[in-house]
Design a protein that fits this description.
Blueprint: E1 4-5, E2 11-12, H1 21-51, H2 57-60, E3 81-98, E4 108-124, E5 133-135, E6 141-146, E7 150-151, E8 155-156, E9 162-168, H3 170-179, H4 182-202, H5 205-223, E10 228-233
């Protein structure tokens, strides 16, 4: 007789599929899990639509609290230099550190960092003495002897510098939990500054600064009545 007993012991109608035993319980738990996943997905979709409605973004959104104190003046300096040129540079730093006898998954880091910054070139005018400037008797000719242009310290732009990717081994991840990994960030930033400084030296920035300084001084002295102006460096 083709009948199946239900939970109460009564026979089920012919042709009604039933799952009994462990396989039946497994199927019921799987069905419940699928229903729960569908419900969670529906709730997430509904929450996304609600957040997109005007006015509800303020209810579920986050706020930023700025509790930074005022800036404190540490020192003042009188500028006596003419900044004749400045360059913007960008470098991609690929820095990897590993342990010789451990796999990278256990100990090692690799950081891909885009560093963007600027370097200025200037001529120092504050230490010139009377020997640096000579003028003829009728004040129509001036000769200036200036020091060579100097490169300033490269300055990273935090708005345009960012880490593309960072891979860390297990031990390094555990160490970052306690230290925040400040040394790793400083290492790539320091390397970016060095590369930008080298690019500034190779790009002829100081020569451009001297040329622009010469043009500035010639225009200034000619406006004061000097007919011939000679500027040299060294």
């Amino acid at each position: 007789m083709d009948t199946h007993a239900n939970d109460t012991g009564a026979p089920a109608p012919r042709g009604t599929p039933r799952w009994t035993g462990r396989s039946g319980r497994t199927w019921r738990w799987a069905a419940r899990g699928a229903v729960a996943l569908v419900a969670v997905a529906a709730l997430l979709l509904l929450a996304g639509r609600l957040l997109a409605l005007p006015g509800l973004g303020d209810v579920f959104g986050t706020r930023t609290h700025d509790r930074t104190g005022p800036a404190v003046l540490k020192s003042l300096r009188d500028m006596s230099r003419f900044e004749g040129a400045a360059g913007d540079y960008q470098v991609v730093v690929d820095l990897e550190r590993d342990a010789p006898f451990l796999p990278d998954a256990v100990r090692g880091t690799r950081t891909l960092y885009v560093g963007a910054g600027s370097v200025a070139a200037y001529v120092e005018l504050g230490e010139l003495d009377e020997r640096a400037v000579s003028v003829n008797a009728d004040r129509t000719e001036a000769v200036l002897r200036l020091p060579h242009a100097t490169l300033g310290t490269p300055a990273l732009d935090p708005g345009r510098s960012y880490a593309v990717s960072k891979q860390r081994g297990l031990l390094d991840r555990l160490g970052d939990l306690f230290s925040g990994n400040p040394e790793g960030e400083q290492a790539v930033q320091k390397l970016a500054v060095e590369r930008i400084g080298g690019a500034a030296r190779d790009s002829g920035l100081t020569q451009r600064a001297e040329r622009n300084t010469t043009l500035m001084l010639e225009g200034l002295l000619r406006s004061l009545g000097y007919e011939r102006v000679s500027v040299s460096y060294g």
